[in-house]
Amino acid sequence: MHNQPYNRNPLLRASYSLIAPLYDFVVERPMRKARMRSLRALSDGASKQVLISGAGTGLDLPWLPAPHRYTALDFNPAMLAHAVRRSEKLDIGFVLGDSMDLPFADAQFDHVVLHLIVAVVPEPQRCLSEAARVLKPGGTIILFDKFLHPHQHAPLRRLLNYITRRFATRMDVVFEDALSAAPELEVASDVPALGNGWFRSIVLRKPD
User: Fold this and answer.
1) CA-closest candidate to residue 188, choices 171, 207, 205
2) Helices H, strands E: what count in the chain?
3) Which residue of 13, 58, 114, 204 lies most exposed, with the fewest beta carbons within 10 A?
4) Are 46 and 39 in contact (CB under 8 A)?
């Protein structure tokens, strides 16, 4: 447990414990429609195994199709405690763990949901490669987050990143750089979601 990557930034873990009661108030309404659109990529057909990696306070849970078996993982007990309250109508289990070091076997899930986590963790490449590792061939990763584009300067965001990365989120993550850590994945779709394209909804597929 002490060797898990998130323990390298104890301030980040502590800050999310402090903001857990306020997180929904700040994030839920502005992100709701984009979150719902992203989750439409989950089929509502036959039951599948779905991992919500970085589940936070469970803001995805009300919009998940019921047929599937879900596993919701987060590194922060205070956040997971809020998520449990949103889970009554789902077949779901909760796991305290690290999105950069997933405690699951290879090829265990049909889908992995990564909402607002890749640009939060200290090592985005590792987060994405771990999601690819536990994904079954033919499965998808459903991703919604804020990213810089390759060669985008964005000086203000990069300046703020020196502060925000230590207690809240990163603002300097280039999606294409993170994707290089999981070359087996293919981009099935990539569309702007919010903030004039700063936030993107992306679906990745692992070939059979």
Assistant:
1) 205
2) 5, 7
3) 13
4) no
Alpha helices in the chain (DSSP H): 10-39, 77-84, 124-134, 155-164, 175-179
Say which range, 121-130, 135-144, 146-155, has the weakest mean pLDDT. Answer: 146-155
pLDDT per residue over 163-189, tens digit each?
Answer: 656 555 676 889 999 999 999 999 999
Tokens at residue 156, please?
């203000």
pTM for this one?
A: 0.86
Nearest to 58 by CA among 91, 33, 94: 94
Tell me the residue type at 70.
Answer: Y
N-to-C CA span, the chain: 33
Q: Whose structure tokens read 């087996």?
A: 184
Residue ranges per domain, the chain?
5-205
- Tell me the two tokens of residue 199: 């936030």
pLDDT score of 7: 58
- Chain position carrying tokens 């985008």: 152
> Is 134:126 a contact under the CB 8 Å cutoff?
no
The span from the CA of 114 to the CA of 128, in Å, is 9
Q: Name the class of domain 5-205.
A: alpha beta
Round the average pLDDT of the chain to a whole number and report it: 87
Which has more confidence, 19 or 97? 97
Q: Which residue has the higher pLDDT, 35 or 153?
A: 35
pLDDT, residue 64, reads 96
DSSP 8-state secondary structure symbol assigned to residue 103: -
Instruction: Count CB atoms within 10 A of the CB of residue 113.
Output: 27
